[in-house]
């Protein structure tokens, strides 16, 4: 059991408020794990704890059997944890291709001086990362706009660009923070297809999402949060029919 | 960051023009101004990486210029070192000082970093005046010249030109490969940069040390170009002018600040009878640029270039190619 990304009894407090209270979840390779719950239930906080943007107060985060609780965001990214953001975080002054290429950073070995002298290694890395980023962009459907500046992209395209950037990292796990937000029905279907391909390729996906239909359609397992606590977890069907989940979140 | 074939052509033409400049103008004074532009450029080109690309607002690089200049004069003049060795040593000293200054200050948020560099510039300027045993205080010291064939005005000009081209080449390489993307990424969004494992503090530090090195080199060249240096030459205003040159030129464009460097060097010299208004003109141009051209001349030029190329801004529907995606994801080694 060493290929998991695991949160063990994780607690996070902001001042007097307990945003996440004793929550555990396991991401497995090749599986989509949904994280649902009302606003303020701690979904995004949980994602920030797993990716390292927040320090946890109690509990532990493990990746592949190793404790990464005290590792920086960068360390975790290098170890194969990629993520997207609720509001896309792109480098707006760079082109779409440049943004996707940023996902190649974890594998850059060329030093500063080597790059200043345009040695063979930075050239090789550049070509390799450019190729892969371009393929990922083709794959998510942004092949036609690769040279465009990222700030000229529409909202949906920005979301898909973040996914392409994450995939360029060759991650083991990818954490998606409300990727369907602001998307049309047809676009959500395409997103679902992309997530399917990611899962089938052996990457573990954490899906934080409000579109519950979408979550229950694409997720293998689901965890439901309310007020920072876990109220249900299990297969999509189990959670969908859980009385507590229906009461606080889904509605009758 | 890919461009057409026009750009290499323009760069080639400009280098050719710069190389034959001594034959075009017999006027030694113009040649001197061109040399000063080159000297400033050696500092500003890499300061642009720091300010324009990485977003770290240093206004104290004049301190590094001064240290480079004094180190060069003391080593090549007083100690009789080979001037080239003295020049490189001055650069190395400034790189180390850049490291020592950067280690604490690059952790500070933008505005406070600017204040720290300003303080550094002020301190160096005061020390140059006060530490007479080392710097001769306000009396100053003569600057040695380089050995033949660089001991003539045009010989020295070509030396400066060669160094400037070399520094520009390194700067352009840093900007166009992955390090350049990392710099811009951490400037625009530290959250995005850290999500792809960009080491934010380390990247800033490397850029700062590199810009410190070339600022030291520029200092040595500056000393020779002036033949004699005094603390007056390194007042904090000059550091602010360097910063302003980048604002005028436009941040994040390699060649943009060259316009700023040219304006900086040319104004006090070419305005001639109005020399005492030099600072006034500089302030005036800055005001105009900030009000009318917030992106500087560099952005103006790149926007024009963008307009010339056909740009399809129509919205396209996103059609994922799932087969290609799967192949790409599984294509890992």
Gist of the model:
Chain A has helices at residues 43-51, 73-78, 96-101, 112-116, 120-140, 155-168, 185-200, 212-218, 236-240, 243-250; strands spanning 5-14, 17-27, 32-36, 58-63, 66-67, 81-83, 173-177, 204-208, 221-226, 229-235. Chain A is of the alpha/beta class.
Description:
The complex is a heterodimer of chains A (252) and B (333). Chain A is of the alpha/beta class and 252 residues long. Chain A folds into 2 domains: 1-80 and 171-252, 3-Layer(aba) Sandwich (Rossmann fold); 89-168, no CATH class. Chain A is 38% helix and 24% strand. In chain A, helix 5 crosses helix 6. In chain A, 51% of the residues are buried. The mean pLDDT of chain A is 94. Chain B contains 15 helices and 2 strands. Chain B is globular. Chain B is mostly helical and 333 residues long. A two-stranded antiparallel sheet of chain B has the order 1-2. Chain B has one domain (6-312): ABC transporter involved in vitamin B12 uptake, BtuC, CATH 1.10.3470. The chains are: A alpha/beta (252), B mainly alpha (333). The interface between A and B is large, with 68 and 45 residues.
């Amino acid at each position: 059991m060493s290929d998991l990304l695991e949160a063990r009894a994780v607690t996070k407090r902001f001042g007097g408020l307990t945003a996440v209270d004793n929550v555990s979840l396991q991401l497995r390779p090749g599986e989509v794990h949904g994280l649902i719950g009302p606003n303020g239930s701690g979904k995004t906080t949980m994602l920030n704890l797993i990716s390292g943007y927040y320090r946890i107060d109690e509990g532990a985060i493990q990746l592949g059997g190793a404790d990464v609780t005290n590792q920086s965001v960068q360390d975790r990214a290098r170890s194969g944890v990629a993520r997207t953001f609720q509001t896309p975080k792109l480098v707006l002054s760079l082109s779409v291709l440049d943004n996707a290429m940023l996902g190649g950073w974890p594998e850059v070995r060329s030093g500063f001086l080597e790059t200043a002298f345009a040695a063979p290694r930075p050239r090789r890395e550049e070509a390799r990362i450019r190729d892969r980023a371009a393929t990922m962009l083709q794959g998510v459907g942004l092949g036609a706009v690769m040279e465009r500046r990222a700030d000229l992209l529409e909202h949906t395209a920005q979301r898909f660009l973040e996914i392409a950037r994450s995939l360029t990292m060759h991650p083991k796990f990818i954490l998606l923070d409300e990727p369907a937000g602001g998307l049309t029905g047809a676009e959500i279907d395409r997103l679902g297809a992309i997530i399917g391909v990611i899962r089938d390729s052996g990457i573990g996906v954490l899906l934080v999402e409000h579109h519950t239909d979408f979550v229950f359609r694409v997720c293998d397992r689901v965890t439901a949060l309310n007020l920072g606590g876990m109220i249900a977890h299990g297969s999509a069907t189990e959670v969908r029919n859980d009385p507590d989940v229906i009461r606080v979140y889904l509605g009758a | 960051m890919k461009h057409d074939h026009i750009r290499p052509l323009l760069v080639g033409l400009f280098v050719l023009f710069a190389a034959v400049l001594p034959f075009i103008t017999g006027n030694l004074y113009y040649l001197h101004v061109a040399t000063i532009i080159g000297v400033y450029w050696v500092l500003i080109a890499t300061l642009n990486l720091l300010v324009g690309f990485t977003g770290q607002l240093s206004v104290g690089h004049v301190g590094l210029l001064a240290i480079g200049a004094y180190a060069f004069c003391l080593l090549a003049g007083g100690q009789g070192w080979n001037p080239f060795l003295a020049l490189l040593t001055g650069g190395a000293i400034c790189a180390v000082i850049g490291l020592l200054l950067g280690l604490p200050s690059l952790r500070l948020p933008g505005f406070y970093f600017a204040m720290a560099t300003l303080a550094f510039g002020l301190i160096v300027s005061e020390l140059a005046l006060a530490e007479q045993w080392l710097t001769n205080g306000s009396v100053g010291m003569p600057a040695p010249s380089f050995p033949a064939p660089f001991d003539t005005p045009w010989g020295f000009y070509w030396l400066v030109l060669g160094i400037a081209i070399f520094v520009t080449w390194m700067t352009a390489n840093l900007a166009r490969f992955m390090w350049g993307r990392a710099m811009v990424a951490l400037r625009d969004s530290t959250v995005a940069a850290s999500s792809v494992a960009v080491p934010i503090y380390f990247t800033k530090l490397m850029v700062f040390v590199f810009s410190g090195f070339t600022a030291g080199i520029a200092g040595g060249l500056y000393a020779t170009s002036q033949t004699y240096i005094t603390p007056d030459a390194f007042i904090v205003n000059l550091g602010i002018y360097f910063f302003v040159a980048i604002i005028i030129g436009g941040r994040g464009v390699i060649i943009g600040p060259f316009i700023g460097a040219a304006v900086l060097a040319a104004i006090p010299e070419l305005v001639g009878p109005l020399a005492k208004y030099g600072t006034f003109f500089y302030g005036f141009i800055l005001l105009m640029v900030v009000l009318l051209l917030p992106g500087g001349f560099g952005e103006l030029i790149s926007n024009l270039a963008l307009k010339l190329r056909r740009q399809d801004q129509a919205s396209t529907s996103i059609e994922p190619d799932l087969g290609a995606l799967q192949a790409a994801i599984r294509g890992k080694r």
